[in-house]
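Q: Structure tokens for this one, please.
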Amino acid sequence: MAYVKFFLDTNALLALSGLNGSDLQVFKDRIEASDSELNTTNIQVDEITKHIKFHEPVRKKHEKKVQSYQQKIDEALKTLKSKGINVRIEATKIPVAGIIRAGHFRTASKEVRKFYNELRKEIDGCEKAKGKIKPLLNIACDATIAVSSLNHDFFVTSDKCLSESWLKVIGKYEILRQQFKIPKIIYTKRYPKEVAKRILEDLESK
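A: Here is the predicted structure, written as tokens:
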């Protein structure tokens, strides 16, 4: 079986941390046997209150919500580690003002920046088409996470608009294949067993 790199978005990461019992053991054993990597990016662990102010007005209620979400992400990473599942934290592949700390990103090419901007607009349009209003910060984070999945075999997401937007936009950027490996997107429901199942299915396909 080939060495495989999976990139997890925030929701997939949170869901996977809830894996327990025999499902956890099977997942851990198969990941270890394949010597594969589970990766995520700094945006998930750097998304703290002060960064929101670059993107939108902040109310105390919103601040508490973001702080609570940050704590869930930190706990998810700790929980996965305690269960013997290591998730490697990578720098983002693009600097985005207000949501990425200095030293936690890589310089992006012109093509990557264009891809990010178009993806961000597509996600926003998708959310609005579904009757949802998603904060600009969340959309910027989604797009940054997606761009950071470049150079992995699979991008695992539980966000339907992110999945649909990726598939719609990535085809326009064949030039990125000269710079990166383009991951296959895995869309999965936000349940521990579903996330684990999809990862293992695609692991077997490699």
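A few notes: The longest strand covers residues 37-41. The chain has one domain: 5-205.
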